[in-house]
Write a structure and sequence with these properties.
CATH class of the largest domain: Alpha Beta
CATH superfamily of the largest domain: Medium-chain alcohol dehydrogenases, catalytic domain
Distance between the termini: 12 Å
Number of strands: 16
Number of domains: 2
Helix content: 25-40%
Structural class: alpha/beta
Largest sheet: 7 strands, mixed
Strand content: 25-35%
Shape: globular
CATH topology of the largest domain: Quinone Oxidoreductase, Chain A, domain 1
Number of helices: 10
Radius of gyration: 19 Å
């Protein structure tokens, strides 16, 4: 079958097309005939916690049709339309753990379903699972035009919270406001704390998603309300270190935590999926929310899709159509 592999060469991640055998599902696994797959910056990051080794078959979220079931899998049948997090979605066939499989809403396209889970689950865990975002609170999303940023806006809407997002583009902020962003701050620099406090009546943000990295961390702390929570989710700036004002953390009872799947246990992944299925899937099924797709590429255009992502030109998710 056709596939694309992520290969680290020096300080860059490159893509290589390869012909490989169709994988076979083991106990508790499902083999999916992939229809579409999403791009996620994290798996293409060299260094840090997310890349995963010198080479790997790419694609960690996708949609498709169940092709075969591994031993012990129940509740699914060949031919079912499914979506979820998995392994090797940049290929014609890929494996999902059965416990990560979600049924596709009947009205969704495969392209929408391909990017309906990973960023939303990340944003959900950051804002709700660990961030404990509540109705009426403010969420700050640094780097709001990324897939997880848009997902954060949507999750906050589901929870009845309000959002502040940063972006360096007026055009992107206009798209984000159309998607539900309450307050947009145009900036590419760590200079937004005063505007966050102005928007929140001086109080500051209750929860923040840091999708930019170390260069924004100190400014995010300055933007927080007392008992504010910060989720570290990405490093667009490539900066993995930051200074911490321990006195501010101490005095204000701030909480700082990371959201990553790289070392998540099977039990943690299963819990995140169950919570997502309980709180977010009904919103999908009721057509009150849909993934924001920036652009769809053909399978053989995957290197161009990667370049588009690395140009930071997108608002929302990039999709590769496999079938």
């Amino acid at each position: 079958m056709k596939s694309y592999w992520i290969v680290t060469k020096g300080d860059a991640a490159t893509l290589e097309p390869r012909e490989v055998p169709v994988p076979q599902p083991r106990a508790g696994e499902v083999l999916v005939r992939v229809q579409a797959s999403g791009l996620n910056r994290g798996e293409l990051t060299v260094g840090g916690v997310m890349h995963g080794g010198p080479e790997k078959l790419g694609g960690n979220e996708f949609s498709g049709i169940v092709h075969a079931l591994g031993p012990g899998v129940t509740g699914l049948s060949e031919g079912d339309r499914v979506m979820g997090r998995g392994r090797g979605g940049w290929a014609e066939y890929a494996i999902m753990d059965a416990e990560q499989v979600l049924p596709m809403p009947s009205h969704m396209s495969f392209e929408q379903a391909a990017v309906a889970t990973l960023s939303l689950i990340t944003a959900y865990e950051g804002l709700v699972g660990y961030g404990r975002l509540k109705k009426g609170e403010w969420a700050l999303i640094a780097g709001a035009s990324a897939g997880t940023g848009v997902a954060g806006i949507q999750i906050a809407q589901v929870m009845g919270a309000k959002t502040i997002g940063t972006s360096g583009s007026d055009e992107k902020l206009a798209k984000l406001k159309a998607a539900g962003l309450d307050v947009g701050i145009r900036t590419r620099s760590p200079d937004f704390a005063a505007k966050v406090r102005e928007a929140t009546g001086g109080a500051g943000a209750d929860v923040a998603l840091n999708l930019v990295g170390g260069t924004y961390f100190a400014e995010i702390l300055r933007s927080l309300a007392r008992k504010g929570r910060v989720a570290i989710c990405g490093y667009v700036d490539g900066t993995h270190r930051a200074e911490i004002d321990l006195n501010a953390v101490h005095a204000n009872r701030f909480e700082v935590f990371g959201i990553s799947n790289s070392k998540a246990t099977a039990a943690e992944r299963a819990e995140a999926k169950r919570n997502f299925e309980r709180d977010v899937m009904p919103v999908y099924n009721e057509r009150r929310m849909a993934p924001l797709i920036d652009r769809v590429f053909a399978f053989d255009e995957l290197p161009a899709a990667k370049a588009h992502m690395e140009s930071n030109a997108m608002t929302g998710k990039i999709v590769v159509k496999i079938a």
